[in-house]
Amino acid sequence: MLKALLELLVPSCCAGCGEPGDALCPPCSVDMTSLMPVRRRNGLPPMYALAEYSGAARRAVIAYKERGRRELAAHFGSLLAEALARLPTAAVVPVPSRPAAFRQRGYDHMRLIAEAMAAPVRPVLKLDRRVKDSVGLDPDQRMRNLAGRLRCTPIREKVVLIDDVITTGATAAACCAALTNAGAKVVGVLALTAT
């Protein structure tokens, strides 16, 4: 009843286009259903994104990460689960949030999405508090930002790393290296968007 009352006072709208209705309307969802290969660094497994980091997809990711639209986790989880079915069978490892981002949001945004995917989730990666926000950093600065600041619990299975945005590939490279060193076989990287 509280949800219905809240809907009357503040009707929901699509985080991608702003139209009244669901958190992510069908047209914006459809725009995030491709499995685009992303250019990868040497030594990385195949990398894919559901959409370019622009337009409605970018607005939806920002609404989820920066504006508290937690309800998008279910939508993003469903979209990633459909894409995951086209990759080799594996457990899902979410890229961890920075501790400061976790405190600010109140949740680990990629873990929440992973848990909505109906796939085995292995939250084995952890960033330490010294990691800074990577926005505005070039690829080398991003690698230095993560160097020695990413830990992984031992894991001996096939995994797919999931993230929200692939920008330079530095985060994916650091996470894949940590996973491999911990005993995992990383069979792919799957992101909601890529620049």
TrEMBL record:
Top-level taxonomic group: Bacteria
SUPFAM superfamilies in the cross-refs: PRTase-like
Protein name, UniProt field: ComF family protein
Organism: Kibdelosporangium philippinense
